[in-house]
């Protein structure tokens, strides 16, 4: 498959998913007469769980998009299995807004935190499956070192394990699972594996200039 078309379609789905997140923030409907200043302020303040869930998922999808870009920037060819695995990843991605709305509405309940963890675990599973397939099919460009691939594999598996633990923890302590979702997001804010390799290459290019 044409790589540019593959990446353009994927970028469009990521953009759609991250935009739809805002639909989870809705004010309650006030009946006539209009609400007072105090009532409106109280209604806005009560949305803080939804805002937190929105910010968390915005960061999650943003990091997923960045990881996808970093990964496929160094892939030389796209085969049918890569397309199918990528579609499975995107299926999980577009489900994140619904899981986010559920988490924001019921942040302390086991069902909502488990659903959120299940969704992110599915996405992480597909990312790991993509990386395994790309590595085994030798689809990486020849310039990608084995060390970079190992570091990327380790970083992806850390995320997968954390999401699984957080998902299971939600069945006992929902608050703990939310903390773990925040921690794994913070973990990916630091460049790792392919991300780190690209950052180093960029720095070296700037030095040469």
General description of the model:
The protein has a single domain (3-208), classed as I/LWEQ domain (Up-down Bundle). It contains eight helices and no strands. The radius of gyration is 20 Å and the shape is elongated. The protein is an all-alpha fold. Helix 1 (3-20) packs antiparallel against helix 3 and helix 5 (110-136) runs parallel beside helix 7 (174-187). The chain has helices at residues 3-20, 37-45, 48-73, 80-105, 110-136, 146-169, 174-187, 194-208.
Question: Which percent range fits the helix content?
Answer: over 70%
CATH topology, what is it called?
I/LWEQ domain
Number of domains: 1
Tell me the distance between the termini: 35 Å
- Give the CATH architecture: Up-down Bundle
- Quickly count the helices: 8
Overall mean pLDDT stands at 90
**How much of the residues is beta strand, in percent?**
under 5%
Assign an overall shape. elongated
Structural category: mainly alpha
SSE order, one letter for each helix or strand: HHHHHHHH
Number of strands: 0
Quaternary state reads single chain
Largest sheet: none
Overall radius of gyration: 20 Å
Weakly predicted, low-confidence segments: 202-209
Question: What top-tier CATH class fits best?
Answer: Mainly Alpha
Task: Draw up the topology in text.
Elements lengths: L2 H18 L16 H9 L2 H26 L6 H26 L4 H27 L9 H24 L4 H14 L6 H15 L1
Helix pairs in contact: 1-3, 1-4, 3-4, 4-5, 5-6, 5-7, 6-7
